[in-house]
Amino acid sequence: MGLWEALRARTKPRRNNLDALFLVPSAAVTLQTALGFEPTGTGSVCYRAAAGAAFVQTQDEVLALLRDDAEAPDVEVSRDDFGFTWLVVTGDTSDLSGLCTDLHAVNTTLELHGFDAGLLCSMVPFRNASGQRFGLTYLYKQGTFYPFAPTGDQSRDTLLELSVRDLLGEELPMEPDPQRWLAVWKAPGL
User: Fold this and answer.
1) What are the residue ranges spanned by the domains of the chain?
2) What is the C-alpha radius of gyration for the chain, rounded to an integer number of angstroms?
3) Does residue 36 come out as left (phi exceeding 0), alpha (psi in the -120 to 50 range) or beta?
4) Residue 123 contacts by C-beta under 8 Å, 6 or more apart in sequence?
5) Residue 22 near residue 158 (C-beta atoms within 8 A)
6) Which helix (H) or strand (E) covers residue 139, if one does?
7) Is 46 helix (H, G, I), strand (E, B) or coil?
8) Residues 6+ apart with CB under 8 A from 128
9) Buried-most residue among 27, 32, 78, 83 (CB within 10 A)?
10) Spatial separation of the C-alpha atoms in residues 1 and 52, rounded to whole Å
11) CATH code of the domain occupying 39-180
């Protein structure tokens, strides 16, 4: 940040890097070998749907893009209690690369059509044999990841979240500020 920006108390917003989603499959190997967590085969993109025909057309384009694949995953759209839309992709648990490509395509298409202001996050859920689960969450506006591990309706496993953050710190751009680790209760697929 330059002197002029500091004097005006303005900072440049951090730029997202959607290509970071392609780092998740290698991070999944680390999660599996170190902590026993495996991907569930589900991933999602959370965004605030815009009003108007242009947004509906763009969302329909995204759905058609995902469903036209030769090995088309299951795709559904739902709304949560806070008014956010979740586009959920469910595919083969062994094809995490394909899932991340689909999530990247959703984000990129919405961004290219001018709806990036409504993008909130993307999530790739993981679970282990004992039933623990967490979502590796990509914050669109920050360009960083954080783990979210719910244990009930309004409780989370902070120790697991910190363990995942520490484990993946060298592989993924992790969000350094835990206050930005949004609690995405009732996230589809989690």
Assistant:
1) 39-180
2) 17
3) left
4) 43, 44, 46, 135, 136, 137, 138, 148, 184, 187, 189, 190
5) no
6) strand 133-139
7) strand
8) 35, 36, 37, 38
9) 27
10) 38
11) 3.30.70.600
Alpha-carbon gap, residue 114 to 66, rounded angstroms: 19
Distance CA 36, CA 34 (A): 6
Q: Where are the alpha helices (DSSP H) in 70-170?
A: 96-112, 158-168
Task: List b or e across 10-36, with b for residues whose CB sees 16 or more CB atoms inside 10 angstroms.
Answer: eeeeeebebebbebbbebbebbeeebe
Strands annotated E in 66-132:
74-79, 85-90, 119-127
Amino acid at 33: T
Joined tokens for residue 134: 């967490």
Token pair in block for residue 124? 């790739």
* Contact between 141 and 13 (Cβ < 8 Å): yes
* Cβ–Cβ under 8 Å, residues 127 and 142: no
Residue 6 backbone phi and psi in degrees, to 5: -65, -40
> pLDDT by residue (tens digit) across 23-72?
999 999 999 999 999 999 999 999 998 888 988 899 898 888 888 866 77
pLDDT at 96: 95
